[in-house]
Write a structure and sequence with these properties.
The protein is built from twelve helices and 15 strands. With about 450 residues, the chain is of the alpha/beta class.
Length: about 450
């Protein structure tokens, strides 16, 4: 465990990420008594301390999950300071160092575009602020394998790997962490969690909205870079990884990279890319854009546990509903005894882990269908999280920002994990398949329906 940070420096403190996520998270940490360090915002904007405090207050009033707590905000505001300056000017870092005073372990949070990382890291090094400190870097971690390696080389020039906290807020969600606990704290699952009993796994991240004014950004990424290479591969890791050999961050991260190393690079022939009709009319989108707003694919893990089990992954915008879920489909019995030929084969057993919209889990099993016939019918044994949970749980940014301050890297990505994830998707980036059109409000292009042999699970019927 690293030492507790004794100051937090937020580069890009006047930006949208700080407004929507960082200041509300800092407010929650202060409210829970977990923030006891100075917070220094750095940006180009010609602001002062009072302007930053006013911006933070507006942010908290708008986005904090429980509203503004006056006492918590007062405590945060007293520790909130501002440094104005260009990221490539050494004077900016001289003023920052002076304001840091005797801080020995500052945490620098880069809420800025990767294009200015070099300037900031050079400034930190020349001012000596990197010595004894650590750095938190927001995704995206590059846009392909080569740029991810370049980004890592840049950051590693100034910080050791153990001092680099690569932030992906998806990994801090309470419901995503539930999957990790569910996997490894329930022994009843272990005998079944392998290729002998599981026929396939489906992982979906569906959104019923479009790019919401971020057309220019989406033109640079597309669905594959935006959510598949990071969020959905993270879910694949949690579903499929082996139990960590020991408690702690390194053992957990070791198993993640072992799983990805066993994963085949995705074959473009196993991929369908789609784009919703009307995407070209979004602001910032090229009239001839072939950027995907939908992607569906098959992935395979070539190890003893999962050999031959397909992982079907899909993600898209302007689909029928917003939902994120994992569905584990079990194999059929060797000889179904209670088949009702009027209704076809019994529905397979499957386990559903719902991240959103209603967090919970379910197991579909067969029982006798009511009536004279000795035939089976499916029922779902379901658990939905209690309404009080929201008041107790941390937000993703609160959890991850608190962990970075405390020096716990467990929920942050290591360089080798990120590079392996890029390796998995690189063939699709290098040899993209044709774009298929789909209507908003559907489940995507019809060509994707053939990817799973059993059809896609329909969350509207869950």
């Amino acid at each position: 465990m690293k030492p507790h940070a004794d100051a937090l420096v937020v580069f890009g403190a006047t930006g949208d990420l700080a407004k929507r996520s960082l200041f509300p998270a800092l407010h929650e940490l202060q409210r829970r008594g977990r923030l006891d360090i100075p917070v220094i915002g750095v940006a180009r904007s010609v602001w002062d301390d009072d302007k930053l405090r006013s911006y933070a207050k507006q942010s908290i009033q708008q986005y904090a999950p429980h509203g503004l707590d006056a006492a918590a905000f007062d405590g945060l505001a007293k520790e909130l300071h501002f440094v104005q300056g260009e990221y490539h000017h050494h004077e900016t870092y001289d003023r920052l160092k002076q304001l840091l005073g005797g801080a020995q372990h500052p945490l620098a949070y880069l809420a800025i575009p990767p294009s200015v990382f070099d300037d900031v890291i050079e400034g930190l090094v020349k001012a000596g602020i990197n010595e004894g400190g650590r750095i938190c870097v927001e995704k995206p971690f590059g846009r392909d394998l080569a740029s991810a390696k370049e980004l890592d080389a840049c950051v590693l020039n100034a910080f050791e790997e153990d001092d680099i906290f690569r932030m992906d807020h998806f990994l801090g969600k309470e419901s995503v962490l539930d999957l990790l606990v569910f996997r490894f704290d329930n022994l009843i699952l272990e005998p079944l969690w392998n290729r002998h009993y599981i026929s396939s796994v489906q992982i979906m991240l569906a959104e019923d909205f479009g790019v919401e004014g971020r057309g220019a950004f989406y033109e640079e990424v597309g669905a594959l870079r935006d959510v598949v290479q990071n969020h959905l591969l993270a879910l694949v890791m949690l579903v499929a990884m082996e139990p960590p050999a020991a408690p702690g961050a390194q053992a957990l991260r070791d198993e993640k990279v072992k799983l990805l190393r066993a994963m085949r690079s995705i074959d473009p022939k196993d991929v369908v890319r789609g784009q919703y009709n009307g995407y070209h009319k979004e602001a910032g989108v090229a009239s001839d854009s072939d950027v995907e707003t939908y992607v569906a694919l098959s992935a395979f893990i070539d190890n003893w546990r999962w050999a031959g089990v397909p992982f079907f992954v899909r993600a898209g915008k302007k689909l029928k509903m917003t939902a994120t879920e994992v569905v584990v489909e079990f194999r059929d019995p060797p000889r179904p005894l209670f088949r009702d030929h009027k209704h076809g084969s019994p529905k397979r057993n499957h386990f559903t882990f719902r991240v959103k919209p209603t967090e919970g889990l379910g197991l579909t099993v067969q029982i006798k269908e009511p009536g004279d016939a000795l035939a089976s019918a499916p029922v779902e044994l379901r658990y939905s999280y209690d309404d009080n949970r929201e008041s107790l749980e941390e937000t993703a940014y609160e959890r991850l920002l608190g962990d970075a301050i405390e020096g716990d890297p467990s929920l942050f990505a290591r360089a080798d994990v990120i590079e392996e994830a890029w390796r998995v998707v690189m063939p699709v980036l290098e040899h993209p398949t044709p774009i298929r059109r789909y209507e908003p409000g559907t489940w995507g292009p019809k060509e994707a329906n053939a990817i799973p042999d059993v059809g896609w699970h329909d969350p509207t019927k869950a």
